[in-house]
Amino acid sequence: MPEHLEVQLPDDVRLHVTVTGPDDAEVTAILLHGWTLDGRSWHRQLAEIRERFGDRVRVVTYDARGHGRSSCMALRTATLAQLGDDLAAVVDEVAPTGKVLLVGHSMGGMTVMEYAHRHPGRFAARTAGLVFVSTTAEGHTHTVYGLSPRIARLIRLAETTGAGVLARCGSWRPPRALLRALRPSIRWMLFGDRCDPADIRLVTSAVAHASLRSIGGFRASIGAQHRLDTLAALGHLPAAALVGDRDRLTPPPCAESIAAALPTTELTVCPGAGHMLMMERPDEVNAALAAVLRQVLERPAPDGSRAGDRPAAGVGTAG
């Protein structure tokens, strides 16, 4: 059964963390969700990892600050740099020893890159593999929403202006009635040719739980990040990158530049798929995840420690 924990950060933000698997597993896989989503995004991966690897792999998901069941935060901390620091804190608290596989979707992948950039020593000591799903290391460089560049510039201007307004709305959540009305737009933006109605309901529910401050506040940082140089230093790690060829937010050039910077990356382009690959193409994502996990399990731990040495984490059980 999953265990629900709470990690309290130095600025008193509380992260809701879900852990499945034993403390002494050989590898801890930490799955990071995208902007405006939450840890439930990975529901089609959790059971598959458990079935394939059993007690050898411990799986951790958590809701980023301002998202899901985690608490809201000061606007100045709505940055990818802060999310990288938050990931460092989660690793230290929940998986203090043993090998770690980092799996990031969209903003979650950018968070992994920021962790590597801001905490290179800690990252190198623990990280044994990487999986990037529908993400980018180049901000909004390649984001044209599947439209002409001129129209894309207008949409980006409207989006960034609106984000600035939302960022000042504090911890309020989007009205559910509004989100129901926006479902066709959400479906167009995030999904490709096929969309299970349950998935659009889950995504809408996740957005409904994100604070307006986080929906608006993270936009500027996401658009500005550039971390290809950081990835280029990680070429020794087994890695995978996946993207849908109908992804309007992080189109194939985003994944291609990640693979070019990180030559160990196995690149998968999913025909007809959009931005939500974990839901749209779970078989492909699960296969890539399993392939990297198998490589991680065969390698010695980066810090030379054994998973069984793991001490008890200093976290509280959520109520």
From TrEMBL:
Region (Disordered): 300-319
Biased composition (Basic and acidic residues): 300-309
Pfam families (UniProt xref): Abhydrolase_6
UniProt keyword terms in alphabetical order: Hydrolase
InterPro entries in alphabetical order: AB_hydrolase_1, AB_hydrolase_fold, AB_hydrolase_sf, Epox_hydrolase-like
Keyword RNA-binding: no
GO molecular function, one term: hydrolase activity
Domain AB hydrolase-1 residues, every copy: 30-288
Matches recorded under SUPFAM superfamilies: alpha/beta-Hydrolases (SSF53474)
PANTHER family (UniProt xref): HYDROLASE, PUTATIVE (AFU_ORTHOLOGUE AFUA_2G14860)-RELATED (PTHR43798:SF33), MONOACYLGLYCEROL LIPASE (PTHR43798)
Name of the protein in question: Alpha/beta hydrolase
Provenance organism: Micromonospora sicca
Upper classification of the organism: Bacteria, Bacillati, Actinomycetota, Actinomycetes, Micromonosporales
